Amino acid sequence: MDSVQTQQAEMDPILRSAAEAARGFMPPDEGLALYQAGLSAALTLPGSPLLEVGSYCGKSSVYLGAAAQAADTVLIAVDHHRGSEENQPGWEWHEPDLMDDELGVMDTLGWFRRTIYLAGLEGSVIAVAGDSPTVSRVWSTPCAFVFIDGGHGEEPAALDFRLWTPHVALGGTLAIHDVFPNPSDGGRPPYEQIYLPALASGQFKEVSATGSLRVLTRIL
Ligand code: SAH
Ligand code: MG
User: Fold this and answer.
1) What is the mean pLDDT of the chain?
2) In which element (H, E) is residue 91 found?
3) Fewer CB within 10 A of the terminal residue: the chain, N end or C end?
4) Which residues line ligand 1 (CB under 6 A)?
């Protein structure tokens, strides 16, 4: 690592506080690992964007937006902002104040925009409010980094694997959240439908693991 990279590898403390204060589901140690992986990928493939699937209220987007800003690129943050299955009323991860009561649907876009504004990252983070498979089908720019943290059901996870991993540039990075090899730690789909198939494809090699975050690099 040269001196420039060493200097940038430390996340800006103000952005770090903004990320820790944001609503969402990204523990600080995994967030920092995400930042490091995003930054390293962005510096390896200058000019290529970072992309995340599943932003919720923007917590992981601050970690990755900080990496994009440090490397002079952008983060594309894809989410339909209607919540995953487990965020719906009656499910374990439902937060009632995120409902649009008049429409009877979740809406996290306003919170996402507040988070990015408060972090001062509006110049580095581009929100795409849409359904992940639909967005992926019209996406054509190779990405330095793709972070998958969207729907955790079997079908959404399998679709995100099939439709987004081809957009990781050669030498780029695929990061996956909520990977639990041990079933007693959490749900299976990110492990079975994304992580295992990525390794089995021979196209990706694991480079690090932090909590439930797995970072893979594209070698083929
Ligand atoms: N990365 C976030 C947590 C993401 S939660 C954090 O750091 O806090 C999962 C998100 O995936 C939810 O916001 C949900 O709306 C989104 N999601 C689920 N299925 C989706 C789909 N098909 N298209 C777009 N977004 C989806
Ligand atoms: Mg997650």
Assistant:
1) 96
2) none
3) C
4) 24-26, 54-56, 59-60, 78-84, 108, 131-132, 149-151, 156
